[in-house]
Every structure is written in C-alpha cells, then in structure tokens.
Amino acid sequence: MSIAILIVLHLLAALIWVGGMFFAHSALRPTAAEVLQPPERLTLLCGVFKRFFIWVKASIVVLFLTGFGLISLMGAQAKLGGHVHAMLFIAVIMTIIFGYIYASPFKKLKAAVADKQWPLGAQALGKIRALMLTNLVLGLITVAIGAGGRYF
Ligand code: HEM
C-alpha cells in the first residue's frame, strides 16, 4: 500500500475518533444535560456511546495498522522523527483509557440504564465524561504532533 493511502486512512481514523469526542463533549453532552431529565439523558447517551464506540474500536485498529505501515514505509527512506514516537506513546495511553472506559464505566452505564438505576448511571456517566475529556485533550495534542511534527 502506498504512503498516500496509508496517510489518508490514518487521518480519517484520527478524525472520526478525536472529532467524535469533541462533538460529544462540547455539544451533545451539555445540551442533553440542559434539556433532558436523567432517564432520557442517560438512555440517549448510552445509545450514542454504544454506536460511537464501534467506530472508535475500528479507528484504533486502523490508526495502529496504518501507523505501523507508515513507519515501515517511511523508515526506509528517512530516520523517523521524535514526533512519531510521541504519537505512538500517546496513542497507546489513549487506547488504554478507552479500554478502561469500555470495560468499566460504560459497562456500568449500560447495566444502570437497563435496570433504571439513574443515580448509578449518572455516576458512571460522570466517569466516562472525565476520562473522555482526558482522551480528547490527548487526541488534540496528538493531532498537533502528527500534523506539525515534521516541521517543528
Ligand atoms: C490517536 C492516535 C493518533 C492520531 C490522532 C494521529 C494523528 C496523526 C496525524 C494528524 C498525522 C499527520 C498526517 C499528515 O502528514 O498529514 C499523523 C502521521 C503519522 N502517524 Fe499518527 N496518529 C495517531 C496514532 C499513530 C500511531 C499509533 C502510529 C504508529 C503506530 C502513528 C504513526 C504515524 C506516522 C508514522 C505518521 C507520519 C509522520 C510524518 O509524516 O512525519 N500514529 N498521525
């Protein structure tokens, strides 16, 4: 596969993951908190995350496959910059945080919504929100490092 195709797939995956978190955090969540009561809000956000997380999982797979593909193609031509190591390092941390969200607070949110345990659901959602904000900040930094790294 050519570098051009790998870069395009890499960028699309980064865009879907980071852009999705930006939208969820800065637009969807505050509006849902303003206009919906806990049962509707938690049910809505649980459904939103169920669908969004499928795309996040696919994006993570694509990011790592294309990232290592780029490393193997570019590594032959030029020494890889420190920005690539930084990107890989932060991406691993982001993937661990996502794995934790998926396995713990998201699982609790799904169970709470199914059992109509709204206070428990709100607690789990609060955790997801804080962790997703961390990943959003890391994701934005990674985009800056990835896009600007070779020119710094
Ligand atoms: C959240 C995760 C990641 C984000 C947001 C991200 C973002 C980016 C961006 C914006 C670029 C610039 C593309 C361009 O030149 O137009 C890039 C390039 C690149 N990424 Fe990532 N990336 C991520 C994960 C990874 C991982 C896991 C690897 C390695 C396994 C990787 C390896 C690379 C390489 C080798 C390049 C090309 C660098 C260069 O042109 O100097 N990335 N990435």
List keywords for this structure.
152 residues, mainly alpha, 5 helices, elongated, binds protoporphyrin IX containing FE
In short:
The chain has five helices and no strands. The chain has helices at residues 3-35, 38-77, 82-103, 105-115, 118-148.
Tally of individual helices: 5
Bound molecules: protoporphyrin IX containing FE
Secondary-structure element sequence?
Answer: HHHHH
- Average pLDDT reading: 96
Q: What's the shape?
A: elongated
Distance between the termini: 27 Å
Please indicate the count of domains: 1
Q: Any chance you could write out the topology, listing elements then pairs?
A:
Layout: H1 3-35, H2 38-77, H3 82-103, H4 105-115, H5 118-148
Helix pairs in contact: 1-2, 1-5, 2-3, 2-4, 2-5, 3-5, 4-5
Bound molecules: protoporphyrin IX containing FE.
Protoporphyrin IX containing FE (HEM) binds next to helix 1, helix 2, helix 3 and helix 5.
What does this structure look like?
- The protein has helices spanning 3-35, 38-77, 82-103, 105-115, 118-148.
- The protein is mainly alpha-helical and 152 residues long.
- The mean pLDDT is 96.
- The chain has one domain.
- Bound molecules: protoporphyrin IX containing FE (HEM).
